[in-house]
Amino acid sequence: SLRRVEGEIYSKRGETLVKGLAACGVCHGQISDPESPLIGGRVVEDIYGEVTAPNITPGKTGLGDWTTTEIMQAIRNSINKDEEDISQAVHKGYLWMSDEDLLAVVGYLKSLTPYENEVDRRHVSFVSRNTTGFWESKKEVKGHVPAIIPTDKVAYGEYLVNHVANCAFCHNSPSTLLRGESFLGGGKTIKREGVERVAPPLHNGQDSSIFGWSEKDIIHYLKTGMTPENNAINPLFCPTNFYRNAPEQEIEAIAAYLKTVPPS
C-alpha cells in the first residue's frame, strides 16, 4: 500500500538521498547540515519572493497526518495535501525522480523523530500568480516513473543532476520575456542567510566554472568543496557537505555527465 511505507519500502536508500544529493536539509533543516533535524524555518527565494521551508518531520505540525501519496504529490507535483499549490521552483526537477527513489525518500521521512515547529504558509495572491507567475507553467506527472540504470554512467548522471540534486534551481540562467532559462548557464543570484552569490555556469563551455576540470577534479570538488585551485566554496551555495555523503557511483556519474553538457 502507498499509504503505509514504514518498515516496508523504507531503506538506507532514502537516508542516503535525503542526506546526500537531494540535500533536503539545505531548505528544511534547522541549519544547512545533513544531520540537522528537518523542522523547517529556513528562507529560500522563488519568483514570488521569500518562502519559508516547512517542517517535514512526522510531527503534527509537519507531515504527521500526510499519506505517502500526498507527500509524493508535494515533492513531485508541488501540490500539498489540501490540493493547494506550493513553490514549484524549489522542487523543480523532482517531478521526474523515479518512483523507487521517491518512495525511499518518503519512507525515510516517515521514519524520522517527530518535531513540532509550526511554519506559517505563504499565500500568493491571484494577482501575483497572474502577473509575476504568468509564464510559470504547471506540469503534472501521472503514472510510473522508472529508475535509470546506474551502469549507464552518463544517463544516470543526467538523472541525478536534473532530478535528484536539482542543480538547475541555482545554475540555470534566469528566463526573460524573450527567452527561457538557459540550461546550467549560470547568472542567477542566490541569497542565503543574508549573503548573495551569482551561480556560475556548469556546462562544458569556456565560460563555465568547471571548464578545464577533469572528471577527477569534479569528483574531488563534490566530496570536499575544494576546487582544483584549492579554493573552498561556501557550502551554503553548493551543499558539498551533503554531496560527500553520496555513493561513489553517483558522484562519478555526475562528473561524467557534466563533462558532456554543451554551452547553452
From TrEMBL:
<dbReference type="InterPro" id="IPR009056">
    <property type="entry name" value="Cyt_c-like_dom"/>
</dbReference>
<keyword id="KW-0408">Iron</keyword>
<dbReference type="GO" id="GO:0046872">
    <property type="term" value="F:metal ion binding"/>
</dbReference>
<dbReference type="GO" id="GO:0020037">
    <property type="term" value="F:heme binding"/>
</dbReference>
<protein>
    <submittedName>
        <fullName>Cytochrome c</fullName>
    </submittedName>
</protein>
<dbReference type="InterPro" id="IPR051459">
    <property type="entry name" value="Cytochrome_c-type_DH"/>
</dbReference>
<dbReference type="GO" id="GO:0009055">
    <property type="term" value="F:electron transfer activity"/>
</dbReference>
<dbReference type="InterPro" id="IPR036909">
    <property type="entry name" value="Cyt_c-like_dom_sf"/>
</dbReference>
<keyword id="KW-0479">Metal-binding</keyword>
<keyword id="KW-0349">Heme</keyword>
<feature type="domain" description="Cytochrome c">
    <location>
        <begin position="152"/>
        <end position="262"/>
    </location>
</feature>
<feature type="domain" description="Cytochrome c">
    <location>
        <begin position="9"/>
        <end position="113"/>
    </location>
</feature>
